[in-house]
Amino acid sequence: MWITSCQLLDTVLDTECPTIYTQTMRKIKIIEGEYYHIFNRGNNKQNIFSDNRDWIRFLFLVLYFQSPVSFENISRPVSYFVKHRVFNINNQITEKLIANRYAELACFAFLPNHFHLIIRENKENGISQYMQRILNAYTKYFNTKYEKAGHLFQGPFKAVHVESNEQLLHLSAYIHRNPRETKEWKNNEHFYPFSSYQDYFQKNRWGKLLENRIIMDQFSSGEDYKKFTDKSGTKKETDNENLLPVFIDSD
Q1: Residue 106, φ and ψ in degrees, nearest 5
Q2: 45-99 pLDDT, tens per residue?
Q3: Residue 4: enclosing H or E segment and its boundaries?
């Protein structure tokens, strides 16, 4: 029996998965220099975003928690983004972050009750540190704001090792196609604000905070990448134990 990483999330979106995996699950060691598909959803399939500021705050965490650099008042850049559609973080801080990051973001998409990322392990335990900071910070924020308690996400984050360049390309396409079944973004997912698709199709809004060159250097233009994404469908890989979906503890 086969099961996809999409089916692991049991997502309501009827989109194709780029790779089909066997149902067996095991833990693996995340290897420095390798790329991983990282994903999770809300506990009991609940939504993890309730208003626009929630989406923006999660976006800030995903972009700016790639290194140990800390931020005292995240509400300020979030408020600035609401008005100006950019985060007002000075270049010196951003350059320090980029120079010291332990995980490198290549692709992302956030949906109402789940998220997908493609992350490169830059330093040992980098992805674990990165995801722990994001999930802990966002859960604390969300529970405080909405007077809730307990787990926001469904257990530890999930990770799948990206084994080949072909898998990487199809995975990015799958992630970017995720919003296409939502009514307001049907056939306009390349403009969806909370994914990196528009940063592939048009100018990269985030500069080196989103390192998409590993993928985009293989295409002549954003339009060329969009054509690939539009045509990308399910790709069945061989039954290789290194491709199996795994659960990764976030502690």
Answers
A1: -115, -25
A2: 999 999 999 999 999 999 999 999 999 899 999 999 999 999 999 999 999 999 9
A3: strand 2-4
Between 165-177 and 222-231, two packed helices, what is the crossing angle to 10 degrees? Answer: 80
> H or E segment at 5?
helix 5-9
Query: What global pTM score does this model have?
Result: 0.85
- Rounded Cα distance between 191 and 123, Å, is 32
Radius of gyration of the chain (CA): 17
The span from the CA of 66 to the CA of 86, in Å, is: 18
Residue with tokens 């045509």: 231
**CATH superfamily to which 2-247 belongs:** Transposase IS200-like (3.30.70.1290)
How wide is the angle at C-alpha 203 spanned by C-alphas 197 and 207, nearest 5°? Answer: 95
Closest CA to 159 of 30, 3, 20: 30
Q: Which two tokens stand for residue 130?
A: 């990165």
**Dist. CA 64–CA 59, nearest whole Å:** 8
215 three-class SS: helix
Give me the residue spans of the domains in the chain: 2-247
Q: How far apart are CA 18 and CA 232, in angstroms?
A: 8
Q: In degrees rounded to 5, what are phi and psi of residue 237?
A: -90, 165
Q: CB within 8 A of 113, min separation 6: which ones?
A: 11, 12, 41, 42, 45, 46, 47, 48
